[in-house]
Amino acid sequence: MVRVFNHWVQPRKAVYFLAEEAVLVLALLAGAALGPVAATTGGPGGAPVTPAVARAALASLFFAGALYLGDLYDVPAAVRDRADGRRLLRALGVATIALALADVALATALPGWMLHRSLVLAATGGALGVLAARALMPAVVGSPTRVLFLGAGSRARDLAGAVEREADGLWEVVGFVLPPGAMAHAVPDALVRSGPVDEIAREVRAQMVVVALEERRERLPLEALLSLRTRGGRVVDDVSFAEAALQRIPLALVRPSALIFEEGFRVSRATRFAKRAVDLLGAATLLVVLAPVMLLVALVVLLADGVPVLYQQERTGQGGRTYQIRKFRTMRRDAERTGAAWATDGDPRVLRIGRFLRRARLDELPQLWNVLRGDMSLVGPRPEREVFLRELKARYPLFRLRELAKPGLSGWAQLKYGYGSTVEEQGRKLEYDLYYIKNTSLFLDLVCLLATAKVVLLGRGAR
Predict the structure, then answer these.
(1) Is the dihedral of CA 23, 26, 29, 33 positive or negative?
(2) C-beta separation of 196 from 221 below 8 A
(3) Residue pair 168/161 in contact by the 8 Å Cβ criterion
(4) DSSP 130-145
(5) How far apart are CA 127 and CA 149, in angstroms?
(6) Are the beta carbons of 445 and 379 closer than 8 angstroms?
(7) DSSP assignment, residue 264?
(8) At 40, is the pLDDT very low, low, confident or very high (cuts 50, 70, 90)?
(9) How many Cα atoms occupy the beta-carbon half-sphere of 351 within 13 Å?
(10) Are 58 and 122 in contact (CB under 8 A)?
(11) What is the pTM (predicted TM-score) of this model?
(12) How does strand 234-237 pair with strand 208-211?
C-alpha cells in the first residue's frame, strides 16, 4: 500500500486503472483513425495529433465513468463479473450512449471538433480496448499479498478476518506466529506456528509481517524482526496495517495513548484554505444550479403533507459548537412525538415521497446554506444531535475526535458504511470517521465527492 496525499491506495489497482485508461485512449484513436473522416480531415498529413488525442482522452472518460458506476473498479465485483460479463456489457452500452450524446452536444457547441462520422468505429475501438484490459486484469493486479501475523490472540484473529472479508481479496493470511513464551491462542491450530518469526516468514513466503500482540508486555522478538527487515521484508504494526488495508481505524485495536504520538489529525493552513474555497464554490454553484429542483421538491412536499416544508434541528459541529440545520421534511409531522430516534430500514414515519427524496438525497439540499455559512463542509463526519451524542461519547470516548472536523453533507463513513441506526453501528462508522479525520486532504475529499455522485445517481444507502 502507498499513501497518495494522505489516503491509502493499493498501487496495483492504481496501475491497472492507469493502464486501462492508456489502452482506452489508444483504442479510441485507432477506431477513429479507421473511419471515413481519416481520409478527409487534415489534408495529406491526416488529422492533427493533439486534438485527436484530446478527443480520445475525453471519450475515455465516458468509458471510465460507466465502469466506475458499474462497480467494475471494485476488484471482487470485477472478478465476479468475469463469469457472464453482464455488468461490463451494461457499462459499455451506457458509455456508448453517453459518447453519442456528447458527440451531438459538442457538434453543436464546437462545430468540427468532434469527428462524429468516426463515432461508431471509435466506440467499437473503446469497447474492444476495455475488453482487452479486463482480460489482462489478473496479470496486472496479480496474486494477493501474503501476510503473516506475529500474534495469535483475538487482535490478530479479528484483524485477519476483517482483512479477508473487506480488503478486495488483495491480502492472503498465511499463518499466525505465537510470540515467545505464549501458549494460548484464539485461531485454529492448523494456522498457528511456533519458532523464529523470520524463519517462518521465509518458509511460508510471507511478503509482510503484521505485529498484533495482545499485550505490550509480551516480549517482542527484536532480533528476528530486525533480521527480517534487513533482508527486505516488511514489518508493520496492526493498527497501521488495518488503516491501510481496511481504510478505517478499528476501535478494538486503538490504544488511545498511542494517538498522542500518531501522525495525522492535523490539517495544514493551506489545506483548510483550499477546502473552504472548494466548499464555497461548490455550495454556491449547486444552490444556483439546483434552485429549480429545490422549488419543485418544496412544492411536492407541500402537496403531499402540507406545511412545514422544511424542518429545523440543532446539530453539533466543529469544536462542539451547535448550529441549526434545515432539511426538506421527509417524515410525518408527529414523527418524534415519543422522542428522538434514529431512522431505520422501512421506517413507517417516512412519507411515501420522503423515501424517494431520501434515496435521491434531495432532502439534504437546504444544508448547502450551512456550507456557505461555514457551519458545515461538503465532506466531513455526519452531524449528530446532542441527544445522541451524550450516549455515543459515553460508549466511545474517541467519538469526541469527530469534533476536530466540520460536519459534512457527505463523508467517508457515510459512503463506506452507510447509515447507522444503533449505537453499535455508530461505533463502526466512527472507525471510518477517524480514518478521514486523521488523513484529511483535498484528494480524499475528491474521492468522497466522486463516490457521492455515484451513490446519488444509483440511489443507494438511504433510509
Answers:
(1) negative
(2) yes
(3) no
(4) HHHHHHTHHHHH-SPE
(5) 43
(6) yes
(7) -
(8) very low
(9) 20
(10) no
(11) 0.85
(12) parallel
- Parallel, antiparallel, or unpaired for β 2-4 and 171-177? unpaired
pLDDT per residue over 272-311, tens digit each?
999 999 999 999 999 999 999 999 999 999 998 888 999 8
Taking residues 204-226, report their average pLDDT: 86
Q: Which amino acid is at 225?
A: L
Per-position b or e across 247-270, b if 16+ CB within 10 A of its CB: bbbbbebbeeeebeeeeeeeeeee
**Nearest Cα to Cα of residue 422 among 315, 345, 354, 316:** 345
Q: Are 250 and 155 in contact (CB under 8 A)?
A: no
- Distance, CA of 70 to CA of 75 (rounded, Å): 12
Q: How far apart are CA 131 and CA 77, in angstroms?
A: 16
- The angle at the Cα of 249, spanning 248 to 255, to the nearest 5 degrees, equals 180
Give 383's DSSP letter.
P
Q: How many residues does the chain have?
A: 463
List the beta strands (DSSP E) in 153-242: 171-177, 192-193, 208-211, 234-237
Residues sharing a CB contact under 8 Å with residue 277, sequence separation 6 or more, in sequence order: none
Sequence-distant (6+) residues with CB within 8 A of 382 are 407, 408, 411, 413, 414, 429
Q: What is the widest separation between alpha-carbon atoms in the chain?
A: 80
**Gap between the Cα atoms of 447 and 404, Å rounded:** 20
Peptide bond into 308 cis (omega under 30): yes
**Crossing angle between the packed helical segments 154-166 and 238-246, to the nearest 10 degrees:** 20
Of 351, 369, 392, 213, give the one whose Cα is nearest residue 290: 369
pLDDT in tens, 352-403: 888 888 888 899 999 999 999 999 999 999 998 888 898 999 999 999 999 9
For the chain, give the percent of residues with pLDDT over 90.
Answer: 40
Q: Are 151 and 211 in contact (CB under 8 A)?
A: yes
